[in-house]
Specification:
By secondary structure, the chain is an alpha/beta fold. The chain folds into two domains: 287 residues, NAD(P)-binding Rossmann-like Domain (Rossmann fold, 3-Layer(aba) Sandwich); 211 residues, N-(1-d-carboxylethyl)-l-norvaline Dehydrogenase, domain 2, CATH 1.10.1040. It contains 24 helices and twelve strands. The structure holds nicotinamide-adenine-dinucleotide and D-Mannitol-1-phosphate. The site of D-Mannitol-1-phosphate has 9 residues, from helix 11. Nicotinamide-adenine-dinucleotide (NAD) binds next to helix 2.
């Protein structure tokens, strides 16, 4: 791949002629960075940045974005920050549809980014600046420093404790936010909106609770004024975010080069579909995102729940079933007969009945639309990517639907098989699926779950132990004998060669 600094077709030059670049002035004339974004990953670059660029084409405003690469231990060069910096802070969003050829857009809204692990004081200063009106986040489920209960702040995490102590630079996202709020309070006390764009249930309330807990754990003199400022001047609206944006591959880079003549080292691929539903509670103004198609509503919760249970819930099922069937990509998983049939059955018969879908949505049509979106072969979305971090995703994606089925007196067979498949993938690793061909599934709980499983005499007992003590399902689900027995039965099947095939048809026969 050509080096964009030396190539005649580097993004900065070509973007201005061959790709649609919005009329946003970039540095040194960029609009003020009214937004600081923690977690400069693919999703933010394909979603919020695109909405912001499109909104700015309609209504100007101080809505440049200063992206921050967060996460621990990233002290060296950060590929996205470096790549964007070498391209005048530009990158391509490659839209890959099923019925049309690739399209490209260059958002062009970013200022020079920051690497949190190296430039922590600058990050605190950016959050603390009076030109900053919104601090948004896509830091993954891992980035919220959640305790084992999945909702409170992990005060046992040494990084959280160090951030509370405050003698060193912040490390955690919550630590950065609170130290930035403190800077604002001491400087100008202007209002701010904290905007979580992660796939968390009630992401705004969750973020509010975590920041509040952190502030509450500070020593009294620091705590009280900050608490008052946080209560009166900082809002945390909830959002439902949706656009499938897989990890970037060399194929995506090659496609950008072939179709658009642009050598972009850090493009991001995404499906054409996008949706953003937000609570309109912005303390210090916001971009006119509605002009870019965002939907503002008083209550995001029904949209969020529907999306997390149906889209993300089905995504995780496809990922684990797909891995065990040897399928590297999500579109292959949904096109696979047994996997596709089981996931469709789970969506329509185990998940949809647990939801009150918003008035403007038709449940079965939404399911069909999701299955069509998952089938997009152009995205190259990996089952191993979606299957990673299951210990943090399952509580959000499956636990509620399982609970509601059990409450209604019904054991949901495909979701039970999903739990057994997750256990098999996370504890079995290379014994369960071909890591060399499919990719490694990472999960912060892997070592702990493998240790628990190692105590068991076999897969069924391991499944019982993990359902009970794995920390990814609520206690009353774990205490449900019939559910746990079904998971254990499936775990036994999955321990045998091609056991997934029999288990999938068994799950379909059992309940559907
Ligand atoms: N990619 C999608 O299709 C999609 C769609 C909707 C929502 N989301 C949400 O966006 C999140 C990020 O997805 P992505 O595709 O941008 O992933 P990504 O891997 O491209 O980026 C993840 C970002 O999170 C940061 N991060 C990871 N661990 C962290 C930690 N412990 N503390 C702080 N920061 C941490 C990383 O530095 C990185 O900037 C998802 O977890 C999800 O909540 C993603
Ligand atoms: O991004 P993750 O890893 O939290 O989850 C993987 C996918 O399920 C998710 O990113 C979906 O693609 C997305 O939520 C669609 O809007």
């Amino acid at each position: 791949m050509a080096d964009p600094r030396t190539s005649g077709s580097a993004l900065p030059r070509l973007a201005r002629s061959r790709l649609p670049v919005p009329g946003v002035k970039r540095p040194p004339h960029a609009p003020d960075a009214g937004i600081v974004h923690l977690g400069l990953g693919n999703f933010h670059r394909a979603h919020q940045a695109v909405y912001t660029a499109d909104a700015l084409r309609h209504t100007e405003g101080p809505w440049g974005i200063r992206g921050v690469a967060t996460g621990r231990g990233r002290r060296g060069a950060h590929p996205v920050i470096e790549g964007m910096s070498q391209q005048d802070e530009l990158y391509t969003v490659l839209t890959l549809g099923q019925d049309s050829g690739p399209a490209a857009q260059v958002p062009g809204v970013h200022h020079r980014g920051l690497v949190a692990a190296r430039q922590a004081p600058d990050v605190v200063a950016a959050i603390g600046s009076d030109t900053t009106r919104i601090v948004s986040l896509t830091v993954t489920e891992k980035g919220y420093s959640l305790a084992g209960d999945g909702s409170s702040l992990d005060l046992d995490d040494p990084a959280v404790r160090a951030d509370l102590d405050g003698r060193g630079d912040p490390v955690t996202a919550i630590g950065f936010l609170v130290r930035g709020l403190q800077r604002r309070l001491r400087g100008h006390a202007s209002p701010l909106t904290l905007l979580s764009c992660d796939n968390l249930l009630g992401n705004g309330e969750r973020l509010r609770a975590l920041v509040g807990e952190f502030i509450g754990a500070l020593p009294a003199p620091e705590r009280d004024d900050l608490q008052a400022y946080f209560t009166t001047s900082v809002s945390t609206p909830s959002t439902m975010v949706d656009r499938i944006a897989p990890a970037t591959t060399d194929e995506h880079r090659a496609l950008v080069a072939r179709c658009f003549g642009v050598h972009d080292t850090v493009p991001v691929a995404a499906e054409p579909y996008r949706l953003w539903v937000l609570e309109d509670d912005f303390r210090a103004s916001r971009p006119a995102w509605e002009q870019a198609g965002a939907v503002f509503t008083a209550d995001v919760a029904p949209y969020e729940l529907m999306k997390l249970r149906l889209l993300n819930g089905a995504h995780s099922l496809l990922a684990y079933f797909g891995l065990l069937r040897g399928l590297p990509r999500m579109d292959q998983a949904v096109a696979d007969g047994p996997v596709g049939a089981a996931v469709r059955a789970a969506m329509t018969e185990e998940i949809l009945p647990t939801l009150t879908v918003p008035d403007d949505v038709e449940g079965p049509a939404y399911v069909e639309e999701l299955l069509r979106r998952f089938a997009n072969p152009a995205l190259g979305h990996r089952t191993a990517q979606v299957g990673s971090d299951g210990s943090l995703k399952i509580p959000v994606r499956w636990a509620g639907a399982i609970e509601e089925n059990l409450r209604a007196g019904r054991v949901p067979p495909v979701l039970a098989l999903g739990v057994a498949a997750y256990i098999r993938v996370v504890t079995g690793g290379p014994d369960a699926f071909d890591e060399a061909a499919l990719g490694v599934v990472t999960d912060p709980a892997t070592a702990r779950l493998r240790k628990l499983a190692a105590r068991a005499g076999g897969p069924a007992q391991a499944a019982r132990i993990l359902v009970d003590a794995g920390g990814f399902l609520p206690e009353h689900v774990a205490a449900h004998g019939e559910f746990t027995s079904l998971v254990a039965e499936y775990a036994t099947a999955l321990g045998t060669p091609r056991g997934i095939d029999a288990a999938l048809s068994g799950a379909l026969r059992t309940g559907h």
